[in-house]
Structures are given as C-alpha cells and as structure tokens.
Amino acid sequence: MPAPIPELTPARSPLTGSGPRSFSVATQDPERGIEVLEQVYAIRRIELDRRTPFSMSQAVRGVEGLSLEQARLQGAPTGALVDATGIVRVGQVRRGALAFTDGTRTTAGRAPFLFPVRPYACRWNELGLLTVSLDLAAVQAHAAGLLGLDEFALRFTEGAPVSAPMTRYLAHLITSLGETQLSDDAMGHPLLRQEAFRSVATAVLHAFPSTFLGRPARPADSDRVPGGVRRAIAHMEEHLSRPLTLAELAEAARMSPRGLQAAFARQLGTTPMAHLRSLRMRAAHAELLEADPGRGDTVAGIAARWGFTHPSRFATDHRTAYGVAPGAVLHR
What is the mean pLDDT of residues 109-119? Predict the structure, then answer.
C-alpha cells in the first residue's frame, strides 16, 4: 500500500509551521500525482491527458517562510491554473519546457525567473523544475525593514533578473540552498532558519524589478532617526573606503562618542561601527558580483579594499549575510 501523501494545508506548509519540514513522493498514479502537485504549488485546477502514461517525483524541503521544491514530471503536456497570490516563487527549468499562457511577460528558461505573484495559467511538457518559494507577507515585512519603513506594499513588475550578475548569483544561491542550507541539521536552530530566509529574501528583492528597487532605503532620512545619526551615516557612506573611527563619526554627527552609540542603539538597534561594517559588506558583495577572476580579482583583494583584513572572518560574515561563500560569488 502506498505511503499517505503528506498533508500540506497552510498550517503544515513549510512556509508557515515551525521547524524544518521535508518529504518526497514518486508515483505513476495520476490521481496521487495531481493531489501532490495541487498542494505543493497551490494549483486550483489541473488538466491531464489520461491516455498517456504519467510519472512524477516531487521533493520538498523547507522551514517557516521558505521552501525548496524539486519536481520531475513525465507524460503528456499538462496545463494548470495556479493561485499563488501569497507566494513569491523563483524557478529554474532544468529539463523540458514550461510556458505561461495568461499574457504575463515572465518566461521560463535555464536561468532563474520569477513566477507571477497572482493567479496564472501555465503548461508544461517533460518538465524538470527547481523552485524556491517564500511567504509573500514575510518578504514584504523584510523589505519594509530594509527600507526603514513601518509598512511597505511590495509588487514585482518583471519576471527576469535585473542583470546578468544577479542572474548568476541567484542561480548559485538556489543551488547552495538545496545542497547545503536546507539539508543541514543546523536548520533545527531558529536563528539559522531566520538567516536562511533573510539571505534568500534579500537576494530576490535585489534580483527582480519591483517597488522595492524603485524606492531608496530610508534609515538615514527617516523622521524617526535623529539628525546626529543621519549625519553619521552620511559620513560613513561618503568615506566608506577609508578608515573611520568612532571619534570621527561622532564629530561628523556633532555628538559625543557615547551619545552617538546610545542613539544608534536606540534608533537602529546596533552600534555605529557595526552599521559601518554592514555598509562595507554590502559594497564588497556588490563588487564581488561584478568582479572577474580572469582580470586578477580575488576575494582577499576585494575584502581588503573595503576594510576586511581577515579573509576567514570576511568569508564567515559574508555567508551569514548572503547565504553563500564570497569565493562562490566571485567564481560563479
């Protein structure tokens, strides 16, 4: 007797519950396959030519807010109506073809693409598909935090990444997610699950055109942030590539060092030097995306240019922030 299909109602979905979740199914039974596909991909209606042999395998690994799905579908061309309005889903077609039929400009290919974040129709044939799915509400809240806003309406406007470097970075991140992060026993720790979600959500927000990319971050000009903190951050951004001290930042902020530290802790929940380090990490990551090992670019050289003198610590911090080692980004 076949094993029961895992119940993936919203309460038990990898995008919602707590802790790591995983399952896999392989079947040649169309009814069983359709039930799994409907639950995993939020399919409202599916069409299947039952005169043609059917075969599928489906695996899911995930934690709250984030899941990775791998599917292999064989048989007749199949169509479906999908209602994934609460899901941000990035996909890679590994085999066969996937086409959207509702007029969206999203197109499937070997590179990562964004599924429509609304009801849509699609058709596939002999499909091998890898997808990463994120809870839209959680991504939206993360975007609001990055922008320094209380609330933010996230809307994606294109399905293709904004640049070739972001395409390569996102493809590598998805591979890394499947090979290491979501399969690691460490995902039992809630803080690591949170970091895994944040790294993928940050990459997706920066990879695809949206209202997020069209709006500049506001931690430095928010009305809630006092002038001294804004002046210190502006000084950091203006002199990011040269050594800065707390005393210099305090002077630029027209505050005492102790007062500046208290203001950063109260308003941003961090310290001035930690905020400076995060800005430099962002700059180093951007340079890694554009770098070329063929021109002699190295991780150590890029890290040193942004003030990271300890390569091993830089690698650890980069992986924490972006979910991938800096060397993997450079040699993508």
Answer: 85
DSSP 274-305: HHHHHHHHHHHHHHHHH--GGGT--HHHHHHH
| Pairwise CA distance, residues 268 & 230, whole Å | 11
What confidence score (pLDDT) does residue 146 get?
80
The pLDDT of residue 184 is: 55
Calculate mean pLDDT across residues 224-242: 82
- 3-class state of residue 305 by DSSP: helix
pLDDT tens string 43-57 = 888 887 777 888 999
Neighbours of 197 (CB within 10 A): 22
Is residue 98 helix, strand or coil?
A: strand
**Maximum Cα interatomic distance, the chain, rounded to a whole number of Å:** 78
Tell me if residue 162 falls in helix, strand or coil.
coil
The CA distance from 37 to 40, in Å, is: 5
Q: Are the CB atoms for 48 and 78 separated by under 8 Å?
A: yes
Is 0.85 topped by the overall pTM?
A: no
Sort strands 119-135 and 87-100 into parallel, antiparallel or unpaired: antiparallel
